[in-house]
Structures are given as structure tokens and as C-alpha cells.
Amino acid sequence: MATLDISFKPERAHLRRPNRGTIAERVVPQSVSGRYRRLKWAALAVCLAVYYVLPFLRWVRGPGQPDQAVLFDLERGRLYFFFIEIWPQEVYYLTGLLVLATLVLIWINAVAGRVWCGYFCPQTVWTDLFLLVERVVEGDRRERLKKQGSGLSPKRIFEIGFKHTIWILIAMATGGAFVLYFSDAPTLVSDLVTGRASAIAYAWVIILTGTTYTLAGFAREQVCTWMCPWPRLQGAIWDPEALTVNYRDYRGEPRGSAKKAAELKAKGEPAGDCVDCLQCVNVCPIGIDIREGPNFACINCGLCVDACDTVMGKLGRPRGLIDYEAWSNIERARVGEPARRRVVRPKTVGLGLSVIALASAMGVGLGMRSEAKIAVIHDRNPVAVRLSDGRVRNGYTVRLYNKADDERSFRIAVDRLEDAAIEVVGDDTLVEVASDATRELRVLVTAPMGARQPIGFVATDIKTGSAVTAQDLFIPVEGGP
Q1: Strands 392-402 and 385-386: what pairing?
Q2: In Å, how far from its chain's centre is CA 327?
């Protein structure tokens, strides 16, 4: 039966000389080359390029509109994403996007475990970047470990200072790029450099510089293991059929050196392919030993696969001792059953269809939404007033939204209520609304006494003839005849 280790006790791995002694000690991963490391470099380059370049892309929207392709315009209360414009009243689209992202993440987890964490998570991307700087300045794992145990020399002080200077510059670029999503990027860059930017902009740059420097430079694996909620969910959503990084223990055990394995095989005794070189542990950015079985802390980055394949290649042994493999296939192989690759199964199909359905619904909703909208709120006190002629008057607050790039005129009317008269306080029923703006109206509706009944408000665009509607209630006077 498949189980997932959620204890992450370092003393278990300590028996095999891991690259950490206690949780408080930092992991010092070793560099490695291979196809998965190359994939991680490619993912890092793409993610950083998107993050730093996206604020500078332009998108023409018309006169008076911002031309930044992706912009969170807090002043106007808009979210711009290329051709999409989200108003505050359409926050449900953002909610839908968060739900969609969650479904995609769960679907990816069902297919390939925490592969998002290993390749595309911002914490992983910036940690890899910081580690690259550390290796270039201070050397690889063995050199860094030797320097940690030595005293401070002028050269060592220079290395430490130079490394942290580059880290801080990267962190400042990260914080600076983030605030560019909330204002016109070229203008804000100029303002930040010349000191003309607002105090809030500088405050957020400082805050994000500090968090990036701390999390990517010092917290690293602690974020992926303890601070992030995603690994905590692995115990509930972990799937033994997912393609995760696993150790083929039926092939690797019993462990021993190449010389010892040759002697055992000469005697006809069992000998595994694992030479206990600890390369899989040394390259792990989290500091776990994947040979101990599935672990919730594993981010599925595949670096241990590259390290093990390199060793197996040098020894002339088959690659894949550590590989992306379903845990259920590991258990099948132990009892001599053939492997079954079940990427397409009811769970992945169901999650995939859910993602497609939600994405399609959001796409259709965005495509069909109107450039105008009307919202109605009934008065609460009083809800109705009886006039001297026996009729009843209800008051409403009506808000018109014009999302078009030009001014629009709307004719306000009511339907579904017989013999009703409508009055727009201080205005005519023909109302003008400026471009990309809203207008609030005070509307009074008068009708003969009757039962409580629905009422519809209709705003007709004079230019296009299109209409938008909103529903509410017409309420009689309490205790009336």
C-alpha cells in the first residue's frame, strides 16, 4: 500500500550523510547537468523574461485609455490584460481565475505531482537564480562547505559582500518590476530613478526587495517545506499513479560500492545498482533522500534523476534508477508485475474536463458581456410611500455603467408593471454617461396600489439600440387596502 511520508525527519536522512544536519541548517546543493536541469534553466529564463518584460508591452485601447498591456489601475479601479478589461463590479472573473488556477494545479498534481513547484514556482525560480550567483562567486558545493568552516580572509569577505550585493540588486529589480504592474512602466521607472515616485511606490519596492532577498537567499527550502501550504495538501491529494520522482528500490537494493557489488554478483548473491554515492541527496535543493520513499517535501524537480543517471552512465549501468515513475509501478515491479502508465484515467480526465468547462464558461462570459450595464438598489427606509391620489411610489438608486470609449445616451424605462410612471430626479429619462464611467441616478416609480410584484428597469442605448436590464420589486404600502 502506497504511503506518503509527511514527517520529514532529518535524522533519518542523517544516517546517510545528507547535505543538512538539522532543519535549522541550510541546504548546500551541488550543481548538476542533465536534461531536467536544462529544462529548469529554460523554465527560469521564460519565467524571468515574462515577469520583467510584461509591464513594458503596449496595447492600444483608444483615446484616454492606458496603453500598457497588463496593468492593475488602482486609481481608476480597472484591471487591464491585453484586450480584456475587468471592472471592480466584475471581480467574479478574478474569483473564477483563482478557481481555475487551483483546478489546473490539482490536475497537474494528478499527472506529475509537484512539478509546478520544481519548475515554475516563483520561490523555485528566484532560489535557482540566487544559487547560480552563489556558485559563480563562491564555487560549487564542496568549495562552499570548505569555506563555511574556514575563517574570514580578505578574499572571503569580498566574496560574501559581492554575492550579497548581487542578491540585493536582483531583489531590488524584482520589487521594482512588481510595482510596474500598477502604473505606467516607463514613466514609473523614470520616477523611481529620479526620486519623483510616490512614497508608496518606494515602500513597496523596499518591502518586496526584503522579502525576495530573505526568501530566496536564506529561507529557500524552508519556504517549500514549511511555509507554503501546497506540500501540506499532498497528504490529501497525493496520487500513487502520478508521474513523480521515485527510486526503483527493487533494482537499487542492496546498496554497495561498485567493487562490492561485483564481488557479490561473482558469488551469486544479490547486489543492487545503487552505489550509495549520495549524489541524489547532494543535488537536492530541499535536502531529502528520495531513496527513502515518497516525501511531501519533494518538489519533483528531477535534479536527483540527472545526478543518478550521470553516475549510472559512468558505471555502465542502465539509467533510470531514480526516475519519473508512478509509485504504483514501483510496487508492481516489486512483485514482478508489468508497469502500467495510466496518465489518462478517470481522475485526470475529470479534472481536465473541469478545467476546460470553467475556462470555456469564463471565455464565453467575457466574449458576450455588454459595454453597458445597469444595477438597481431599492430604498430601504421607507420602502414605499402612499400618495394623496391613492397611488404608491417606490424609490430606487440606479447606476449606469458605460464601458465604451465614447459617451453614450441611455433611455430609462420600466416594464412588467402596468400603469407605472417613472421619474429621474433632477434629470430627464434620457441620461448621458461619459466614456469609461458610471453614473448614479435617483429614480422614482409610481403605480396604482396592488400586490407586491416584480419590476424591470431597462436602459436602451440610443446610438446602438441595444438594451440592458435589471430586476427588482415594486412594494405596496404596508397595511394599505
Answers
A1: antiparallel
A2: 27
Please write the tens of the pLDDT for every residue from 443-456: 999 998 888 889 99
- The answer to whether the CB of 402 falls within 8 A of the CB of 437 is yes
> Residue 127 and residue 296: Cα distance in Å, rounded?
19
Exposure of 72 in the CB half-sphere (CA atoms within 13 A): 7
Torsions phi, psi for 202 (to 5 deg): -65, -35
pLDDT tens digits for range 264-317: 777 877 888 899 999 999 999 999 999 998 888 899 999 999 999 999 999 999
Q: Cell numbers of 143, please?
A: 568549495
Per-residue cell: 183: 502604473
Cβ pair 215, 167 in contact under 8 A: no
Please tell me the distance from the alpha carbon of residue 127 to that of residue 121, in angstroms, as a whole number: 10
Q: Which of 320, 299, 291, 297 is nearest to 308 (CA)?
A: 320
- How many residues appear in the chain? 481
Cβ atoms of 204 and 188 within 8 Å: the answer is no
d(CA 299, CA 23): 17
Q: Count the helix, strand and coil residues of the chain and give each as a percent rounded to the nearest 5.
A: 45, 20, 35
Which of 290, 292, 260 is CA-nearest to residue 273? 260
Q: What is the DSSP string of 438-454?
A: EEEEEEEEEE-S---EE
Domain borders along the chain are: 372-474
Q: Indicate the DSSP class of residue 84.
A: E
Angstrom distances, CA of residue 253 to CA of 4, 246, 321: 20, 14, 10
478, three cell numbers: 404596508
Confidence of residue 12 (pLDDT cuts 50, 70, 90): very low
Cα separation values, 386 from 31, 451, 453, Å: 82, 14, 16
Cell of 7: 514527517
What are 473's strand-pairing partners? 454
Radius of gyration of the CA atoms of the chain, in A: 32
Strands 392-402 and 408-415: what pairing? unpaired
Tell me if residue 21 falls in helix, strand or coil.
coil
Residues 8, 226: contact at Cβ < 8 Å? no
Predicted TM-score of the model (pTM): 0.82
Q: What is the pLDDT of residue 13?
A: 38
Q: Can you tell me whether residue 27 is helix, strand or coil?
A: coil
Is 40 strand, coil or helix?
helix
Decide: 327 and 240 in contact? Cβ < 8 Å.
Answer: yes
Residue 330 confidence (pLDDT) above 90: yes
Helices (H), 56-121: 91-112, 115-119
- The answer to whether 48 touches 119, Cβ cutoff 8 Å, is no
Average pLDDT of 124-133? 96
Give domain 372-474's CATH architecture: Sandwich (2.60)
What's phi and psi for 25, nearest 5 deg?
A: -80, 145
